Amino acid sequence: MRHANVPIFVPHIGCPHACSFCNQRSISGVQAAPDAAEVLATCRRAAGMLGERVSGAQIAFFGGSFTAIDRAYMLELLTAAREAMQAYGFAGVRVSTRPDCIDPEILELLAGFGVQAIELGVQSLDDRVLAANRRGHSASDVRRAARFIREAGFELGMQMMVGLYQDNREGVLRTARGIADMQPQTVRIYPIVVIKGTQLAALYERGLYTPPTMDEAVALGADLLAFFEGRSVRVIRLGLHASETLEADRVAGIYHPAFRELCEGERYRRVLDGLLAAHPPGGVTLLVPPGHASKVTGQGRCNLLPYEKRGFRLKVCADASVPPFSVRVV
Ligand code: SF4
Fold it and tell me: Where along the chain do its domains lie?
């Protein structure tokens, strides 16, 4: 049964930091902090929509630093989530938080409320990049938190960013390798979006920071997908969720509502280049995994057009024997 999350966004509340890229109100698209009644109402609606799938679904507190929020408020949210689990049969809870806000005491508390998965906002494993982006924690905080989480038996998730101030392609790939070495079950990858009112926006406006181009970010996104797949780490998100507030507050950076699709299309473009670059033009059938035809053709057929211009007549057909991100030429 497919996994489902019931996302509940807990904005900036309680976070004493001001990371270079963060304006949680824009990122989560939500202004107000939810209370217990809202958590229960959201879960009731979600349970109605999920039907049988509710038993595989998690109540997910995202958007802020969950374990850093006021303790009484955190307990209010967790108590409401536990009530919803008992009433509707949700599998458990997942939360996202900062690496320096994890210790054995908080983990014991979370376990008591049915928390199953903890996602750490890692962003980078380079202390210089972390400091430049005012993260307020170090790479060793990440490693320590990851160890605590794994030892306590939670599912470990990690979130990283592409395009941070003073980071580059090599730095991002190093962070990905470091993350994979910590063996998280899941990863979320967020390409940078420069949002009004942030330190990054100020640096950008003064010409001191340039985010990666869309092409650079898509190429790196494709590399990261392939890398984590090779290390058996599931990439459960690539790109920020679409949000009207985010779109309104965006100054620059990488935002596309189908960013992952672009990166997957780039993976297929590379596969096609490998297959067709030396292939004589003419009629060619491309056998692709079912459900992947649009990724293979790319947006606006961008993956096929260069070959069609060279005289190829390409036909894309689904074939269940072709593994993901492979193509067979007939
Ligand atoms: S720690 Fe999280 S919530 Fe706090 S400023 Fe940084 S990104 Fe925003």
Answer: 4-257, 265-329
pLDDT in the model for residue 14: 52
- CA-closest residue to ligand 1 atom 5: 18
pLDDT for res 159: 97
φ/ψ of 293, rounded to 5, equals -60, -40
CB atoms within 10 A of CB 30: 18
Dump pLDDT digits (tens) for 55-89.
999 999 987 689 988 899 999 999 999 999 999 99
> Is the shortest distance between the CB of 157 and ligand 1 below 6 Å?
no
What's the gap in Å between 56 CA and the centre of ligand 1? 29
Calculate the average pLDDT of the chain: 94
d(CA 36, CA 41): 9
Q: Where are the beta strands (DSSP E) in 10-85?
A: 57-62
User: Looking at ligand 1, which atom is closest to the CA of residue 22?
Assistant: 8
- Mean pLDDT value of segment 1-27: 77
Q: 4-257 is classed in which CATH architecture?
A: Alpha-Beta Barrel (3.20)
Output the pLDDT for position 244.
Answer: 80
